[in-house]
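Please produce the structure of this protein holding pyridoxal-5'-phosphate.
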Amino acid sequence: MIYLDHAATAFPKAPGVVEAVARFLDNEAGNPGRGGHRLTVAASRAIEAARTEVAGLLGGDPERTLLGPGATHWLNAVLAGRLRPGDRVVTSALEHNSLMRPLRRLELERGLEIVVVAGSDPDGVPDAEAFRAAVAAAPTSLVAVNHASNVTGAVLPVAEIAAAVAPTPVLVDGAQTAGSLPLDIDRLGVAAFVCSGHKGLLGPPGVGVLLLAEGFHLEPLVLGGTGSRSESEEMPEHLPDRLEAGTPNGPGIAGLGAACRWLADRDVSAVAAHERRLIGRLADGLAGIAGVSLHGWRDGASRVGVLSFTVAGSDLGELAARLDRGHGICLRAGLHCAPAAHRRIGTFPGGTLRAGVGPFNTEADIDALFAAVRRIVDER
Ligand SMILES: Cc1ncc(COP(=O)(O)O)c(C=O)c1O
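Below is the modeled complex.
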């Protein structure tokens, strides 16, 4: 099997993840922070060690590094926990539905004003000036923006955007960049950074991360037991407990900690360079096949290892199935949960075939994909 669907989820996971998950379940599976017996203490230790690994890799403060079920959960939590009736929010035309759907729901429920900024380049990336102008037009409560498009791989200049719109807080959806680009969240100057644990961070599914800047307060989306301040029926004030109600996914978190340790040892900039090289090779190879079009691709632009393409006259779902069945190549066809991005790059409603590379892919994997596409095109 040649797995080229890392933008959906990483496979395989980082070395050490399976062992960390099993170790937690075998030896550490108490309920962390609930009681004082040895298994509870072991669970708390494993989770706090993982939190420290995640914070260390991403450049956050462990106390403000929140662990929960996924990027989707944390995007919902920041939007619902921060936005008030009538607030104005500026976002981009390249967002995933995990940001747009909660935003549209809040538009209905809280009367938000949502302003969508679209760039004029083929990849649809708006520059920092476009955000500055949008925010300057009226008082704005939040800028919510993708760090890299899961459809095109284009990277948005989030540090420049944060500087341009300051002091308006910026929420970044880093689902496609964490683990795939070297990051130092404190230096990005953003208020909140959200990412998945199961994509570029190479951890198990069912875990995601929210990093908060100091002083950026949220009302909790989910309320419940924390094992702390149990005498009160109000959520505790202190982080991480305020935003982490309920029994956490200990095995997933332990696995994520091991994955972040592996990435830190290996160096994320080496991973980023490897993925960029592979996706560049793929773009060059596909561009030479008659009938293949690349979408949202701009030479020299900052990007992660994601590439969207179509093949003229082909049903993309059928093509993906043929690549899987006939060539053992796994990639995804469709809208990739980001209809706005497809509207922006002109591939709505048909969508694209999307290849997403990871640290374990090789040049041979890439060559196999364009050889397979060429063969399918030639056979028509
Ligand atoms: C850009 C982007 N944001 C958010 C998400 C949601 O992430 P999760 O699966 O961790 O909820 C995804 C996943 O596909 C994504 O690509």
